[in-house]
């Protein structure tokens, strides 16, 4: 599903709340770290916490902020601490584009979703993040979806999310061949508390499965 079939699968760990966990993620070679700015999430952080945590992230690791239908004012406060915006709500393309910063759009895999249509609608996004659908929950469900529903040759790079763990990530990479994968709960000891061993295992299994 990747726009470039020769590229390796990138890895994003999301939902960081502790500096030591960022250090552990960087040590095992993660490509991006995510911060949930939605206050209703058990992994949510404040702008002040974001500033402190993002300062821990070294060069060449992408800092991603996750937002769910939130105010322009809040997002603008976060911009100095982020490299990429991730929109998980019902944001219109124009709303995502207005900040002049690279962004990705998360789509929950409802039964009726037309991914080709959504790829056209959000054509300015850097990628589409595909997550499991649960009514009333914008993400972080810990559930997978039927990966065979992802069409071949989608016009945008695919970031696969939803219920990924060290135990199933190898099969996910082999089946979907996504541009990137995104995990939060599958590498945790508790909400917002990452498990260093699980992070290391996740990265290792992605590398072993990716034969491109």
What does it look like?
The protein has seven helices and ten strands. Strands 1-2-3-4-5-6-7-8 form an eight-stranded parallel beta barrel. Strands 9-10 form a two-stranded antiparallel sheet. Strand 9 and strand 10 (193-194) form a beta hairpin. Helix 6 (169-176) runs parallel beside helix 7. It is an alpha/beta fold and 212 residues long. The protein is globular. The relative contact order is 0.19.
Q: What distance separates the N and C termini?
A: 12 Å
Q: Count the DSSP helices.
A: 7
Number of strands: 10
Give the rounded overall mean pLDDT: 93
How many domains in all? 1
Strand content: 15-25%
CATH-assigned fold name: TIM Barrel
Q: Give the neighbour order of strands across the main sheet.
A: 1-2-3-4-5-6-7-8
Enzyme class: isomerase
Family: Belongs to the TrpF family.
Protein name: N-(5'-phosphoribosyl)anthranilate isomerase
Domain N-(5'phosphoribosyl) anthranilate isomerase (PRAI): 12-204
Question: In terms of topology, how is this protein built?
Answer:
Elements lengths: L9 E4 L5 H9 L4 E5 L10 H8 L7 E6 L4 H7 L5 E4 L5 H5 L5 E6 L6 H7 L6 E4 L26 E3 L8 H8 L3 E4 L4 E3 L2 E2 L1 H14 L3
């Amino acid at each position: 599903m990747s726009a470039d079939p020769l590229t390796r699968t990138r890895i994003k760990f999301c939902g960081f709340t502790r500096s030591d966990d960022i250090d552990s993620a960087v040590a095992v070679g993660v490509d991006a770290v995510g911060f949930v700015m939605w206050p209703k999430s058990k992994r949510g952080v404040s702008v002040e916490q974001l500033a402190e945590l993002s300062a821990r992230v070294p060069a060449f690791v992408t800092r991603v902020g996750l937002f769910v239908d939130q105010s322009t004012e809040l997002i603008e406060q976060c911009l100095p601490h982020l490299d990429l915006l991730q929109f998980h709500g019902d944001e219109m393309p124009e709303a995502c584009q207005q900040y002049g910063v690279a962004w990705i759009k998360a789509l929950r895999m409802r039964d009726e979703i037309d991914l080709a249509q959504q790829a056209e609608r959000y054509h300015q996004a850097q990628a589409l993040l595909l997550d499991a659908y649960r009514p009333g929950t914008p993400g972080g469900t810990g559930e997978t979806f039927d990966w065979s529903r992802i069409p071949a040759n989608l016009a945008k790079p695919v970031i696969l999310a939803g219920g990924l763990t060290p135990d199933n990530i190898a099969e996910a990479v082999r089946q979907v061949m996504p541009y990137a994968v995104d995990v939060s709960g599958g590498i945790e000891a508790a909400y917002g508390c990452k498990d260093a061993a699980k992070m290391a295992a996740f990265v290792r299994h992605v590398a072993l499965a990716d034969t491109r």
